Amino acid sequence: MNPDQKSLPSSSFLVERSRFLVALVFFGLVIILSGCAQTQALKAKSAMTERINPAVVLLIEPDVQLSVVTASGLQEPNAEWTEIGRRNVAQALEALLKEKNASLIAYRAPQNDLDRAHRHNQIMKMHGAVGVSILNHKYNEMLALPTKVDRFDWTLGPDTQMLRDEFGADYALFVFMRDSYASAGRVAVIAVAALLGVGMQGGMQLGFASLVDLQTGEVVWFNRLISGAGDLRTPEPARQAIDSLLTDAPL
Amino acid sequence: MLLRATFVLSTILGLSGCATPQTLPDTANIQPGERPDITTDEAGLWMASEDVERRLAASGRVLTDPEINAYVKEIICRLSPEYCADVRVYIVRTPHFNASMYPSGFMQVWTGLILRAENEAQLAYVLGHELGHYFRRHSIQQWRTVRDTASAMTFFSIATAMAGVGYVGDIGALVAMGALMSYSREFEREADDVGFEMMSKAGYSPDEAPKIWQALLQERDASGDPNQLIFFATHPSTEERIDTLKGLATAVPASARGVDVGAERHAKITHPYLSEWLRDDLRNRKLAGSEIMLKRLIENRGERPELQYFLGELYRIRGDEGDAQHAVEAYTTALGQKGAPAEAYRSLGLVHWREGHTAEARAAFEAYLRAAPKASDYAMVKSYLDQL
């Protein structure tokens, strides 16, 4: 590690950092979580007035990662759980959208067309940047922006029309989920620390979802989930998590 | 975060180490075609690494031209035929000297490194070094060390009833930044040895290995700032590496001594990119280092017009005492050759203008407008003529 890191111009590292920031935002919000899932949805004005039904929804591949919390609190990704979790999240999303009478198209990155793949990727990165801004400035009162206090008007810009045209979809749905579970060592640390009167966090479930109008690029709806319980490794709790995250999505 | 864990780590090693050299854990090499079992921590690291690879591939900064990609890949396959199929290379347009290996078998090679390698043998040595990180499984060893040390620290702090908030961290940070920078020095030394052995066995001249560090050292010394090159942060001292590699090179018996240097091939493959990479390099504004690098390029490749043009640009941008004169000389040399960029006229005009040489400035701008009638800044340069 080097203090000169800021001189790194590589965009891939900026992406890394913004992803990292997402984790930071979450951790910044968390004190010690109770068992219940907490969500707090935000809607753009247009979401109330111009609802499309039945809507065609382009599902961007959900960004899901399941980890072990080591004794010291580090997150170690677990490939096996993540594979199962991704499957469960995909199934839960499919079932939920079906109930909402929305038809689902799975996003596929362009093959053998690097230019188009790059342009798609720019939209995904823009969504990452906007999503982090929403989490930072709408969910944390300390960081509230004076011009955004009573409104929810965030947009990725009209470039999203590219996805609308290519996939014939009205909306894009982005889902981000992180789920972690305390290792045996972490459980021991928490137990001993509790005896000493210190509260420590074990595993937790964190997520956000956003619905983007592909005609305008506007983020019409956004929700965040924080839970001290939940388990994406099993289908039923995974379904519950996705339901609480997406239940009032305007579809 | 990782920084904190790494700091803890180095403190602990520092305390226990004293005069005893640190030894690396006895870890088996990764086998060709091997994938870690999905239930292991290593599989988690691979998963995170593959996420990084997907984003890198779509970042728009990766060179897609087949010729240069084939060049780098061929060197890798020549160094290590058995791992050839497992390793994926991404040449990334970034004007710094670095390359990095990721646990799942993909490698980033930055254009700033390819620009600074004088020949194929020097590049081969660096690629061999990176391959060493891969098949010695340095990433997972590093992660386990950080994790286990942090856990030990937590238990320790609990035991002494000083339980704090714990170390919050993310393996993604290790993959993204750690893979680049924080391999420990011991891992670097091991990778140096592996890289040297590979390039030497593949028939490259072993004397080239230390030379790439020597060149880098010159750039660092010229800059007067030891931290200027990010590469030095977590690597063994360059002087030490040069000595070690020179020793290794001397020890190679004459019968096994490769002679392949590949300077011409390297020059030919990189030639189409020179202007772009040099422009990127000057944008860094690390001009003292760039000057050393450019002069070395001129020494190796002759007075090509684009090299002279960028040398002129360097002097023009720096603007120290005497630089205006140096810049004029460099542009003039460039323009005296076939294939000089039209921009050399424009820059020559700007230097003369700044120096108050109105007639020379006018002549240079007019020459630019004649040479580049379709340039996007045609009207702008034309307006200079009115202002002169």
What are the SSEs and their pairings?
The complex is a heterodimer of chains A (251) and B (388).
Chain A: H1 11-29, E1 38-43, H2 45-49, E2 56-59, E3 63-69, E4 74-77, H3 79-99, E5 103-106, H4 114-138, H5 161-167, E6 171-182, H6 184-195, E7 205-213, E8 219-227, H7 235-246
Parallel strand pairs in A: 2-5, 2-6, 3-6
Antiparallel strand pairs in A: 1-8, 3-4, 6-7, 7-8
Helix pairs in contact in A: 1-4, 3-7
Chain B: H1 2-17, H2 41-57, H3 66-79, E1 88-92, E2 99-101, E3 106-110, H4 111-116, H5 120-135, H6 138-159, E4 169-170, H7 171-181, H8 185-201, H9 208-223, H10 238-251, H11 263-270, H12 274-283, H13 287-301, H14 305-318, H15 323-335, H16 343-355, H17 358-371, H18 378-387
Parallel strand pairs in B: 1-3
Antiparallel strand pairs in B: 2-3
Structure description:
The complex is a heterodimer of chains A (251) and B (388). Chain A is α/β, with parallel strands linked by helices and 251 residues long. Chain A has one domain (12-246). Chain A is built from seven helices and eight strands. In chain A, strands 1, 2, 3, 4, 5, 6, 7 and 8 form an eight-stranded mixed β-sheet that branches. The longest helix of chain A has 25 residues, at 114-138. Chain A is globular, with a radius of gyration of 19 Å. The relative contact order of chain A is 0.23. Chain B has 388 residues and is mainly alpha-helical. Chain B folds into two domains: 2-256, no CATH class; 303-387, Serine Threonine Protein Phosphatase 5, Tetratricopeptide repeat. Chain B has 18 helices and four strands. Chain B has a three-stranded mixed β-sheet, sandwiched between helices. The chains are: A alpha/beta (251), B mainly alpha (388). Strand 4 of chain A pairs parallel with strand 4 of chain B.
